[in-house]
C-alpha cells in the first residue's frame, strides 16, 4: 500500500488564507488578486478584479503582464517588481491606470496596496493586490471643478463660443467612453439650428448641419428641438430620423446620437446638446445625468449671452439716437447761423440800394457796381435792380444775384440794357 504523503502545514495554511481572502472579497467592490513568483502570476482573483479588467480577459495561472500587457508601460509592473524585491509594501492613492487599448481604452483610478506574501521562512513568494476603484469619485471631483470653472466663465461674461467649446471638451474628457459633443443654437424664430460648438466633429459635418431645420424626423437634434424633449438614437444606420443624414454621418464615422433640447426658463428653445458615438450605444444613467447637468449649464450660458446681446443692442440704439439728436441740433445751429448771416446780408444790401438810389439822382447810370461793400466793386454796372419801395441800384451780375437771394421783393428793372438776359446768360 502506497503511503500518501502528509500535506505541508505551511502550504495548506497559505491556501486556506487565500481562500478566505477570496471569499472575503468575492462579492466586494474592492479589487483583489493574489500574485505569485517574480513573474507575478495571477493565482487567484475576485470577480470585481475580472469585471474591472474585462470579462474577456479572465485568466489565472499566467503572468499579470500577459493578462494586462498595457500595464508594462505605466510603471505598475515595475512597482510590483520593487515590492517583490524589497519586501516593502506599497500604498498608493488615486493611482491612474489606463485599461485596454485603442478606442476601448478607459481611464481608471484606484486606491491600491501591494502587500508582500511570505513563506514560513519569511521569504517573499508573491504579492497580494487590494484596490478600491475611485474613478467615479475622481470624475465627480473633476466634474465639479470643471463645472465651477464654466460657471465662473459665464459670470465674467466670457464669449459664448469660448464657454460652449470649453464645455464640450470638458464632457469629452470626463466621459468614460469616447464621446463627441455638439451644441447647436436656435435661431430667434426657433425654426433652424446653427453651429455653436463641436470641437471634435469634422469641419465638413459641422458645415453640413449648420442651419438645419427643426422638425419631426430631422435627425436627432432637429427632432429634439421640435419635440422639446430628449431624442436617443442608438443606431444611426437603421433609425428613420437619419434617413436624410445617414451618408453624412457615415462619412464622419458616427453611429449613435443622443440629443437633448436646451430650454430657457420660460420654456423657449435655445438650442440642442448632442452626444455622438462611433459605435451603436445605449445611454447609461451616468450618460443621461451628465447630459442633464451640462444642458442646464449651456442654457445658463446662452440665456446670459442673449441678455448681454439685448443690452448691447439697446445701448447701440441709445447711442445712435443720441448721435442723431446731436446731428439735428448741429444742423439746426448751422441753419440758424446761416439765416442770421442772410438777414445781416439783406440789411446791408438794402442799405446799399438806398444809398445807390440817392446817388442816381446825380448819376442815373453809374460806370461801376454800386452793390459792393467798401472800398466798392470795380466790376461794370450791367444790371439794374429795384425793390417794392422804389429804391433801385446798378450792379454786377455777382452782386445782383446776392441781392436777389438775400433781399426780399428785389427784382431786375433794367429793361433798356437787357438786364434779365444779362443775368440769365451770366
Automatic annotation (TrEMBL):
Annotated GAF domain ranges read 146-312
InterPro entries, per the entry: GAF, GAF-like_dom_sf
| Entries under Pfam families matching the protein | GAF_2
- Name assigned to this protein: GAF domain-containing protein
What organism is this sequence from? Micromonospora jinlongensis
